[in-house]
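Lab notes, practical 5.
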Amino acid sequence: MRTITRTPLACLIGTLLSASAASASVLDDTKFNFGGYVKLDAIASNYSDGTLPSGNIGRDFYIPGLTPVGGNDEGTAFDMHARQTRFNFSSKTQLENGKSLATKIELDFMATPNGDERVSNSYSPRLRIATIEYDGWLFGQTWTTFQDVAVLPDTLDFIGATDGTIFVRQAMIRYSNGGFQIALENPETTVTPYGGGGRIVTDDNSVPDLVLRYTHKADWGHVSGAALVRQLAYDDGGLIDSTETAASFSISAKFNIGKDDIKLMYNAGAGMGRYLGINTANGAVINANGELEAIDSSGGLIAYRHLWNDQWRSTISYSWFEADNEVALTGMGVTETTSSVRVNAIYSPTKALSFGLEYSHAERELENGNDGDMDRLQFSAKYAF
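Output from the prediction step:
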């Protein structure tokens, strides 16, 4: 019998060929997709009681808690940006056990701290979504299970009816079976100091947020309900070491009326904080004993979309937010209510291309009675691929 001795180079080549063959086998069973859109937004904003400085995120899209109050009208501010432009990449692999594995990564350029409007308008990409899905399980970052993404209104603004909308993306482990979902999601507590003051972001939670959701779908649309149970926690390493358990609920629905639709959402409970209205109110406040007390809040939205014909459509929406602040603890300088209404007209000469014009009016009032409003006119051009 003849013995063949393989040189190190031959071994390396053999290993690479084997790895290449294995990789090719996986690729044969994997489908890749990419998509996204390019979007230009031109925004003119007039505030009744002050203004937002250059580079403020509230000039890129509507954030209820940033509407200026108690100042002077400084005229109209005009901004133009393409930061909402986004890109997503996904894959789906058919595994040898008969099940499938799916992944998704999505990026855009909104809400990043670097970049300015002086010369290059260079903005860094940010991670929106990064998920792995297998056999009913999801691992990664995506929309919170407490949010019904399907009832976000068709608006030019980045979010739209923001005041009363649950809107959070975060890391989680989620299991789905039919219309039922249960998830453990990344926790984070925002706190108002005793007597009022700047927001405290604690990062002291010891357990994840728990979310349960059930959705019923039919030809007429869908209805969905969700519950959130979370721990509010703050430990300053000194006098304060407190936790509080809070719970809240969300009910949402979409009703199809021919080609038109109506979207609804209502949310209420204790300690929602950052989940509602992009953190218009904090989740808790510190009392005189150095302990946390959950802040109650509520809000909702209603939106009607009408298709005029195959190329024109319009949406009118209204949303609101209300915080039940214990002013002896929070002080009088916190937001009590916000609301906004918007109406638009969108023209799509083809399915992928759209041009739109949107008017919105927003109001904000503090517990001390100071208030302010915003009028905004927005033009958008968008190509989806």
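Observations recorded by the TA: The CA atoms of residues 334 and 366 lie 5 Å apart. The longest helix spans residues 8-28.
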